[in-house]
Amino acid sequence: MTRFGDFDVLCRDTPSYTWCNLFYRQILDKDRSLLTTASTPTVSAGMGVNPTCTILRMGHDGSLGNIANIVVCALSMVFIAVMIWVTNRRKAAVGRIELRTFLSLYFLTLPLQLVTTGSFLEQGSTALVVLTAIHAGLVAALFWSLLANGLVATQVVEDGTPSSLIPFYAIAIAFFAATTYISLDIGLSFTHVFGPSTPPEALGSIPLFVLTSIWPAATVILYFGLMTYIVLAVLNEVRPMWFYILSAALFVLSQLDYFLLSRVICKGSSSKVDGAFVATFLETASVGVLYLAWKSITEESWDEDAYYSS
């Protein structure tokens, strides 16, 4: 029976599930016999641990890697770069620096996602483990920055000032450092504090599961609750709320695609692509709509309170 914090089912049934890269090396080091023929030899293995469907490593048996997601990640990087530039131009907008940081963190996750889920590097390699650990750290920091943007929007502290930015960056760095360290310990087992799971085939790590699954879900819910209060109760507006609802819906759809449809797409395409590219597209669209929501509550036509851009 799968316990809380176990990744075995996810690594078997969800193609391109990033954090499985950390556990593959665990199995290699501890008991290679636990790897079935579905995920060996390692030189050509795709993502997952004993996966039901996986995309072979690029260059093996004619594989192009996870080409669809590679393309979508690259296009998303261009789109987010433009959004960062546009955000930076809105000098008087409330929460500009904080939103720019959120967008910058999301931008940094994209090339890492491209590499860690693109079937470029050999499974179990140190390089793949390190890049995956950094990716995990950025994801944890990214969702803190999302929640922090919601807190800044309440204007409890003035945005863009040291009282806002110092805790913003300090906590982001703490999340990044802690999650990256835990991920490295899981993948490389250099202290065994967060190292090999017991039993090894369970691929268990409660801290990693909390930081990469529970924490992001909780921050999305809290952020949506904060912005609902601000838009409907403080600003007494309805139009921006539709942007936040659409952004939340796109994010939820991306996760549903990733966890429910990815294997279906993988099998339907004979292991040429999986649902990761759809999930990435929807996530990027969600971020884009989030920017529109922020823009709509910082327009110069609004003059009720601190959200007025002078």
Question: What does the secondary structure layout of this molecule look like, with pairings?
Answer:
Blueprint (H helix, E strand, L loop, with lengths): L7 H6 L6 H11 L36 H23 L6 H21 L9 H28 L8 H27 L17 H29 L4 H30 L7 H21 L14
Per CATH, the superfamily is Rhodopsin 7-helix transmembrane proteins
Q: Give the ordered list of helices and strands.
A: HHHHHHHHH
From the N-terminal CA to the C-terminal CA, the straight-line distance is 58 Å
What is the CATH architecture term?
A: Up-down Bundle
Q: Supply the number of structural domains.
A: 1
Features:
unfolded protein binding; Chs7; 310 residues; globular; mainly alpha; transmembrane helix; Chitin synthase III catalytic subunit; 0% strand; disordered C terminus
Kindly describe this structure.
The chain has 310 residues and is an all-alpha fold. The protein has a single domain (8-296), classed as Rhopdopsin 7-helix transmembrane proteins (Up-down Bundle). 63% of the residues lie in helices and 0% in strands. The chain is built from nine helices and no strands. Helix 5 packs parallel to helix 7 (206-234). The longest helix has 30 residues, at 239-268. Mean pLDDT is 90; it is low at 300-310.
Quick structural summary:
The chain contains 9 helices and no strands.
